[in-house]
Amino acid sequence: MLWLLACTFGLVATGSVHCQDEELQPVLQYYQGSSIDSGLVADADGFHLNNKNLTIFSGALHYFRVHPSYWEDRIAKISAMGLVAVETYVPWNLHEPEEGVYDFGDGDREFSPFLDLDLFIQKVYEANLLLLIRPGPYICAEWEFGGLPSWLLRIPDIKVRTSDEKYTSKVKAYFDKLLPIIAKWQFIKGGPIIAVQLENEYGGTGANDKEYLEFLRDLYISHGIDGLFFTSDTPGRSGDRGALDGVLQTANFKFFPEVQLNVLRELQPDKPAMVMEYWAGWYDHWMNGRHASTSAARFRNILERIITYPASFNLYMFHGGTSFGFMSGANAASSFPTYKPQVTSYDYDAPLTEAGDYTDKYTAVQELLDQYAPKKFLKADAPKETTKVAYPDVPLLGQLNLDDLVAQVDAGDCVNATDILTMEFLDINNGNGQSYGFVLYRKNAATIGENSVLQIIGHVRDLAVVLIDGENITEPLTSKEQLKNFGFWEQSNASTTLSAEASVPHTLDILVENWGRVNYGRLDSGVFDQRKGIVSGPVLIDGTAISDWQIFALQFKKKWLQSLTGWQPVDDSVRGPVLVRAIFDVDSAPNDTFIDMSDWGKGSVFLNGFPLGRYFNLGPQRTLYVPAPLLVQGSNEVLIFELYTPSTKVVFSDSPILG
Ligand SMILES: *[C@@H]1O[C@H](CO)[C@@H](O)[C@H](O)[C@H]1NC(C)=O
Ligand SMILES: *[C@@H]1O[C@H](CO)[C@@H](O)[C@H](O)[C@H]1NC(C)=O
Ligand SMILES: *[C@@H]1O[C@H](CO)[C@@H](O)[C@H](O)[C@H]1NC(C)=O
Ligand SMILES: *[C@@H]1O[C@H](CO)[C@@H](O)[C@H](O)[C@H]1NC(C)=O
Ligand SMILES: CC(=O)N[C@H]1CO[C@H](CO)[C@@H](O)[C@@H]1O
Question: Theoretical Cys-Cys bridge with 54: which of 49, 487, 577, 624, CB 3.0 to 4.6 Å?
């Protein structure tokens, strides 16, 4: 009576598994069978899970990029597509926002509800799927600093992603909190986790630090996690440089599947082939043309060649979601522009859109799996797409200019310093420095004359707006070419001319935006030195170094945003930097929507205190996705921090504009 068991279990577990075919069982239940004797094993003739053949058809879904109210929906869509497994990374920077302060969903930070990893794994379990987990601690993922916490950068000479004890001691402390969650949900203990990755694309670092990979593996083992361990790299590029003896190598690529898989097979002839990242689409950089897109036909053709190679695969991404708030990362390049920040949307041109809608790629995978899957399982019903609504335009209600904001920065987020400090070295956040947002360097009573020259020694990371007595004097960023000028990261020791009445003292403000820390690169290229703000100073006026700064951390945390007072009516001549406010009512159950920022300049949007993300009118992304659960029935507040020129209203859209 196995079928009866299957249906009952499915119904209890998800409420959505149905029994149209009495012989099919859900994935996890099939592999668990009547007793669990062994976990995942990679043999010459394929993968075996609990002594049954397994071809891994998996999809990447990052819980930290999807509102938790939608986890079940997205997981059900993985099942309905015919995949057998979910894959996720784990972001250290969110789980340990301050050293020794851990958040696995129980914190009171903006992202806390997104961080209940235990609940996410439980959802995968209830959906009767398997789970591949990639805890990093470095994850790349087009995520701020590749998931590393910025407070690591307070440690002088730290060598992240190596066996440097200054770094590994921090990894160990974090993994001591994280790994019990993973250990508990291992397949051999009745959970869905069948495999765990060591580091991430370590072959791309140019390092050959096996000691570090061994340290990670041994840390897992000491927590009772015994695999299956794997590494992932692009074989045609990195060979087995990121590999460790006895650990399964997997491949990451987008094109030329036979070429990449042949290299993998040569490196590792006695193991089944697995593509850990088959890049279903790609991500976007600000100021970079159009939204990435690969046709469904081309995508399908390559996936078919992977399946028939034959190889297992994980679609990267199945569903990208959103890099909310300040969480999008950046790439480094050797030629102009040397720093390329990524957009807020992580749509990724994936089988599900950023808002969870089906695409042609989804159907393509479904059809291929119907045709080729060696074993069929009971799938979830495909959930319906949510309705997307364009709410009516909302006028702006109030504004706070930079001075009004600075006056309300908590004393604890304000530092007086003789010399310029980067964000990370501000003695705030219980000694953890500033991680994200903007930093304001203020010099009171500065001597500035007509045609004074302001020079910043070193670099601004990543963009600066200069104000004298509250009036901005720098050009808004309207073209890529401008990045070569004063005020942007590209040029070191850049200077500009200031003009002010010489007889009176002035207030000089340099507002610097952290546009996202680089998440990928070789270790010897220096790109993991991602300190933000002014790096390194000093700042000179007419050749004389300025000392005695007041430095304000503008972090835009929820509690602070909700405490702001003194809102002024919005006047027609409103100019950035400014925080503006709008209130709107949602009469019935909220719906998914998009905020259209096409008529704005550059900045960040906050909805009911939650950081939705960055926007920028050079695109390609123009709209910000708002998942319905971030809205409330009743009054909602939108705050927009605009660096340049605000629009006069907040405009919604029922469809995304990603460029
Ligand atoms: C498992 O895979 C092996 C090797 O491909 C095959 O010979 C065998 O028939 C498969 N077993 C089942 C039960 O499908
Ligand atoms: C920092 O300096 C400002 C003015 O220069 C002063 O008003 C303030 O009290 C100082 N703060 C601290 C903590 O010393
Ligand atoms: C920038 O200025 C500093 C201090 O004067 C100097 O040491 C450095 O060489 C300069 N860098 C460049 C690229 O000119
Ligand atoms: C908004 O969402 C609710 C609840 O999901 C749904 O019932 C309703 O039809 C949606 N509204 C519109 C206009 O689609
Ligand atoms: C956004 C904005 O108004 N920027 C202005 C700042 O000041 C410079 C110099 O006066 C102007 O050119 C910018 O347009």
Answer: 49
